[in-house]
Amino acid sequence: MVEVDRGTTQRLHGWLERLRRGHVEARNEVVEHACERLRLLTRRMLRGYPGVRRWSETDDVLQGAMIRLHRSLAEVRPESVRQFYGLAATQIRQELLDLARRFNGPEGLAANHHTDGGESPRR
């Protein structure tokens, strides 16, 4: 479990307030500040997607989710820290779902790749 520092939460709340007031640079500060906590959340969520975990690492998923989060903060203004982390979790989940579709779809990496962990058959 991640320990949440009260000062950290207050700083995040301040950046969210600046973001709601229209300070564009606050978007970068919010995303940068939350990165480590979101990395831990991504790691936990990735465990539920073994088909994605085989092909992508936590930081790969996090990077895509952070790009999504940054874009969504251009339009959505979370009212609270809780709403911000809810939005971030949604972006992580969407990234995982898109990666799962890409890897496991008919043209995906996993579609034509077979490994069963055993020895190859002898001829």
What can you tell me about this protein's structure?
The mean pLDDT is 85. The protein has 123 residues and is mostly helical. α2 (25-46) packs across α5 and α4 (58-72) crosses α5 (81-104). It is built from 5 helices and no strands.
- Report the structural category: mainly alpha
Low-pLDDT windows of residues: none
What does the main sheet amount to?
none
Termini separation comes to 52 Å
Q: Percent range for helical residues?
A: 55-70%
Shape: elongated
What is the count of helical runs?
Answer: 5
The radius of gyration is 18 Å
Return the string of H and E elements.
Answer: HHHHH
Keywords:
123 residues, mainly alpha
Please outline what is shown here.
This protein has 123 residues and is an all-alpha fold. The chain contains 5 helices and no strands.
Topology:
Elements: H1 6-20, H2 25-46, H3 50-53, H4 58-72, H5 81-104
